[in-house]
Every structure is written in structure tokens, then in C-alpha cells.
Design goal:
Number of helices: 3
Strand content: under 5%
Number of domains: 1
Largest sheet: none
Helix content: over 70%
Length: 84
């Protein structure tokens, strides 16, 4: 955003205002999440690890299904009966 704002000649006081406001919001969100989940960090880390493996498995299954469907369509085009 810094580069694109500079190229667009965005006024720096306006940019600074929105930049600081955005930083305050994100810091507030991170601190709030940290306070809410500080007692459950190990459980949360284990859950996120499990979800990561689940997402990887779903991605592999989707890619395999897509490739299988592509191969079936390709084979169906080659085996079409010729008109009499």
C-alpha cells in the first residue's frame, strides 16, 4: 500500500491517519485474541495442526478427483462409436 499510495500521490496526512487507525485495530484484535485464548494455547495449536492436515487431505482428494474426471473425459472422447 505504501508504494501504490505514493505513486497515486495520496496525501500523506490522510494516509498516516488511516495507517495508524488500521494498526490500532489490528493490535487490538491480536491482544484480545491473545487474552481470550492464552490458557488454551496448546489445545489450539493441536487443533490447528489437525485442521491443517485435514485441509491438505481435502486438497489432495480434490486434485485427484479433478485429474480422474479429466482422464475419464479424455478416454470417452477417444472411444466414441463411429456413425454408420
Amino acid at each position: 500500500m505504501n508504494l501504490s499510495s505514493g505513486v497515486a500521490a495520496y496525501p500523506w496526512p490522510k494516509f498516516l491517519f488511516w495507517d495508524v487507525l488500521g494498526e490500532v485495530v489490528w493490535v487490538g484484535v491480536y491482544i484480545t485474541l491473545g487474552r481470550l485464548f492464552s490458557g488454551r494455547v496448546q489445545d489450539l495449536a493441536q487443533l490447528l495442526s489437525s485442521i491443517g492436515w485435514l485441509l491438505l487431505a481435502l486438497l489432495v482428494a480434490a486434485a485427484s478427483g479433478w485429474e480422474l474426471a479429466r482422464q475419464i473425459r479424455r478416454a470417452a472422447r477417444r472411444v466414441r462409436p463411429e456413425p454408420e
